[in-house]
Automatic annotation (TrEMBL):
Organism annotation: Christiangramia crocea
The THUMP domain, residue ranges: 46-157
Keywords, alphabetical: Methyltransferase, RNA-binding, Transferase
Gene Ontology terms, MF aspect: RNA binding; rRNA (guanine-N2-)-methyltransferase activity; rRNA (guanine-N7-)-methyltransferase activity
InterPro entries membership: DNA_methylase_N6_adenine_CS, RlmKL-like_Mtase, RlmKL-like_Mtase_CS, RlmL_1st, SAM-dependent_MTases_sf, THUMP_dom
Protein name listed in UniProt: THUMP domain-containing protein
One Pfam family of this chain: THUMP
Extent of the signal sequence: none
Length: 386
């Protein structure tokens, strides 16, 4: 227990509960949900495991120090007092990310600048030289969060956002964030228990995340690097054991995961990304217009997709969404169909009543994840058969 410490997993709005469940399933302790974050307790090995295995986390932060600040000088002085040489060599490099919600500090970039000055001045005073700033590949990434006059300083164990899984080389116009895709799949109840279809698959992100959930593949297995690999206490043997243990839990999948897109360029990009993720055995992608397609068999089908909103493509939104509803009603009986949209007016054109509406955000845009249950024949008949 002595080696345990508190960590914070940052996430997207609406995913706090499913991230807490992921952490519980992984073996985290003292789990507490917050706003777009979940705090928890674990050891160094668990920090490695959280970065490797969590599907809905964006960052894993290791809180370092907290203090009150009422001026820029206080911020500078408090940051300079911290023994940064414990984490960083004088010849190393650093980067600082900031989030500020305060009347005292109004510019996050300025907070980052003051914090950087404090750290490099400490090194210069002690060693006569200073570390460099490297925003892309630093040896130490620091996170500073100021709420009113309370400052939290954390070490960022992830580095690049954890949505950057490492499999996506090619994208279409507006690819969906991998964490958003994984979270939507989990919210939809997808566990790999049936056939799956993304009928507007774009660059294949939803398909890849669906296959990784179905096979219990760690989502960040393809990542080239985590920030903790540059930390002074980096334990490569421990990380390899964690990775090996996670890979032993990978399971087989006996159903079909399919993707359609009518654009040849999207199909090509999606196939390339699926290949990068080593999932070609599990995912089939075809050039096909969803509106000209139909369900291929009588088995239950799970559909989840991210249709164009009008920002991405020149379309008549009302007609497009009406066609989504018509295609589902006529050609996809025995289906649970989920999709995300930021166009709330367009929802009215679908012509079906959503059984669930979940508020999410796609980037800065407020969105709804909608569920439509497409019955075999009439709803009444379906109930009689149950």
């Amino acid at each position: 227990m002595a080696n345990n410490f508190k960590m914070i997993a940052k996430t997207l709005y609406g995913f706090e509960a499913i991230l807490a469940k992921e952490l519980l399933d992984l073996g985290a302790m003292d789990i507490k949900q917050g706003n777009r974050m979940v705090s928890f307790v674990g050891d160094k090995g668990f920090m490695y495991k959280a970065n490797l295995c969590l599907r809905t986390a964006i960052k894993i932060l290791k809180p370092y120090e907290s203090f009150k600040v009422n001026s820029e000088q206080e911020l500078y002085d408090n940051i300079k007092l911290l023994p940064w040489e414990d984490f960083l060599d004088v010849n190393g490099s650093l980067a600082i990310d900031t989030a500020v919600h305060s009347d005292i500090f109004t510019h996050s970039q300025y907070v980052a600048l003051k914090a950087k000055d404090a750290i490099v001045d400490r090194f210069r005073d002690r060693y006569g030289k200073r570390p460099d700033v490297d925003l892309d590949f630093p040896d130490l990434r620091i996170n500073i969060h100021i709420e009113n006059n309370y400052c939290n300083v954390s070490l960022d164990s992830s580095g690049d956002s954890l949505h950057k899984r490492g499999y996506r080389g090619a994208t279409n116009i507006a690819p969906i964030n991998e964490v958003l895709a994984a979270g939507m799949l989990i919210l939809s109840g997808w566990q790999g228990q049936c056939d799956f279809l993304d009928p507007m698959c774009g660059s294949g992100t939803i398909l890849i995340e669906a296959a990784m959930i179905a096979c219990n593949i760690p989502p960040n297995l393809n990542r080239k690097e985590f920030a903790f690999e540059k930390w002074k206490d980096w334990d490569e043997d421990l990380f390899e054991k964690i990775e090996e243990s996670a890979m032993k839990k990978i399971r087989d999948f006996s159903f079909k995961i399919r993707g359609y897109d009518k654009a040849p360029s999207a199909v090509m990009k999606a196939k390339e990304n699926v290949k990068n993720a080593n999932l070609s055995d599990f995912i089939q992608i075809e050039q096909k217009n969803f509106f000209e397609s139909e369900k291929e068999n009588d088995r239950y089908l799970h559909i989840l997709f991210n249709p164009p909103y009008g920002e991405r493509l020149e379309i008549n939104v009302e007609e497009f969404y009406a066609e989504i509803g018509d295609t589902l009603k006529q050609n996809y009986h025995g289906t649970h169909a989920w999709f995300i949209t930021t166009n709330f007016d367009a929802i009215k054109s679908v012509g079906l009543r959503a059984s669930r509406k979940i508020k999410l955000f796609n980037g800065p845009l407020e969105a709804r994840l909608l569920k439509y249950v497409i019955y075999e024949g009439s709803k009444k008949k379906s109930k009689q058969n149950n």
